[in-house]
Amino acid sequence: MKLEELKVYHESMEIAEDIWQIVIDWDYFAKDTIGKQLVKTINSVAANLSEGFGRYHYKENKNFCYYSRGSLYESKTWLTKARNRKLISEKKYDSLLIFIDKIAIKLNNYINSIGKKSSN
Fold first, then answer.
1. Residue 6 phi, psi (nearest 5)
2. 1, 12, 50, 99: least surrounded by Cβ within 10 Å?
3. Cβ–Cβ < 8 Å for 37, 77
4. Where exactly are the structural domains of the chain?
5. pTM of the entire structure?
6. Would you give the DSSP letter of residue 87?
7. For domain 9-113, is the CATH number 3.30.2350.10?
8. Mind listing the pLDDT tens digit for each residue in 46-102?
């Protein structure tokens, strides 16, 4: 299997691009405070999946997936701050949280599959 074949990887890349497009339009102060943190955390989701996948040892891969999951959940906090400070709409906030929750399910399933042998 290749990294690019993982749906969780594709979706984490997709949400990072969505969030980038939102943050890029914010004013300097908002970008410099909440924006940078939000972009860093959401970018870390795919980055950690990539790094773990490249380690070739299932225990290291799992560890990086845990980091990825932590970043995914941290991004919820930054999105909540963005919503509370009127940087994103309630509707956009809700849709991003739904997408994050779907990614979290896929990520948990991927974590649970790492290191298990398929019985073919």
1. -80, 120
2. 1
3. no
4. 9-113
5. 0.91
6. S
7. no
8. 999 999 999 878 999 999 999 999 999 999 999 999 999 999 999 999 999 999 999
